[in-house]
Amino acid sequence: MSARVIDEAARVLADPQVYTDEPRLHAALAHLRANAPVSWVDVPGCRPFWAITKHADIMEIERANDLFTNSPRPVLMTEEADEQQAAVGISTLIHMDDPQHREIRAIGANWFRPKAMRALKVRVDELAKRFVDDMLDKGPEFDFVQEVGVNYPLYVIMSMLGLPEADFPQMLKYTQELFGNDDAELQRGTTKEEQMMALLEMFAYFTNVTASRRANPTEDLASAIANATVNGEPLSDIETVSYYAIIAAAGHDTTSAVVSGGLHALIEHPDQLARLQADMDLIPLATEEMIRWVSPVKEFMRTARADTTVRGVRIGEGESVLLSYASSNRDEDVFDEPFRFDIGRDPNRHNAFGYGVHFCLGAALARMEINSFFSELVPRLKSIELAGPAEHMATIFVGGLKHLPIRYTLT
């Protein structure tokens, strides 16, 4: 058993600004995979953790959900943010372990099964066409992220929830502020108290939705959540609004990041765009490659319930591990030329959706949205190029591009 390894490169994983500089980020992660794949990180403001950067180790940890638990620390936050969220009592699926996780996950599971996805595909295809058609009126230059990338997935998830279109802009503001609370442009204010208001306002919104759906049930996902029971008992208020929040926020921002990041990748790799235009049957593989390339969820965390080892390194009971998907999906031991964007990559064993019991509930929906959008856009693109620099948001959890100025012509 090896001694505790401390590699300064691992400190980048706690720095939101590093995710705005992909060359720097990936240089550090490649160094860690080669030299310190299990590295102890202790930085000011955060409780210490182990950085796990190899694909195989992350998969092993996710399989061992009885040993490595989501509670009490599912994502990397500052100690202050941890305490604030604990005080609010947030309890989403990512905070839970079995059996509670299994019971609560089941409430929404039917809405993401193949039969439900087939029924939803008509709406997703309609929205994809609507947003690509709208691009005809925006040209010849605009910011793809802010005009299309963030809105298309939002319309899909809000339609599933059955929420009025007039509320969509406000929900977009909440989700951007929640996941962009480390980004000076996107965050709500500069103090933690101001930033917490976005979460509290979202919770207030969904508390009203719950009351409405309980008084007048409808045939949508919002009603299914509001009227759900576990062992004959309704969900608590915090469990209900937490469920809405994870569906609305995670279901939106992750897909938004891949749609925008996927288009950016096609622009930067015109040979792959031409290849896709010549063979649209590659869309399913291209979708998986975009997901791997962007890896919108940068990390999740687990906490050891007992002393154990990872790659020969002792992990003590109560210590946390950070699972770096940004690193895992560039692992040289798993992917042929991992820094090559290849729309025909097969196999593509990315773990951007996680693995095991916490595999992303909305993975099928995300795949469908990405597939539908690029199936509509790619055949109609006559030309496309950057009209300015692409900009990434500062984050250590979920995110991607916040600006993608493009110049294009469509049919």
Automatic annotation (TrEMBL):
Domain of life: Bacteria
GO molecular function, one term: steroid hydroxylase activity
CDD domains in UniProt: CYP142-like
Pathway(s) this gene product operates in, as recorded in its UniProt entry: Steroid metabolism; cholesterol degradation
Keywords, in A-Z order: Cholesterol metabolism, Heme, Iron, Lipid degradation, Lipid metabolism, Metal-binding, Monooxygenase, Oxidoreductase, Steroid metabolism, Sterol metabolism
Keyword Metal-binding carried by entry: yes
Protein's GO biological process: cholesterol catabolic process
Cofactor entry: heme
Pfam families tied to this protein: p450
UniProt similarity note: Belongs to the cytochrome P450 family.
Entry protein name: Steroid C26-monooxygenase
Organism: Mycolicibacterium rutilum (Mycobacterium rutilum)
Lineage of the organism: Bacteria, Bacillati, Actinomycetota, Actinomycetes, Mycobacteriales
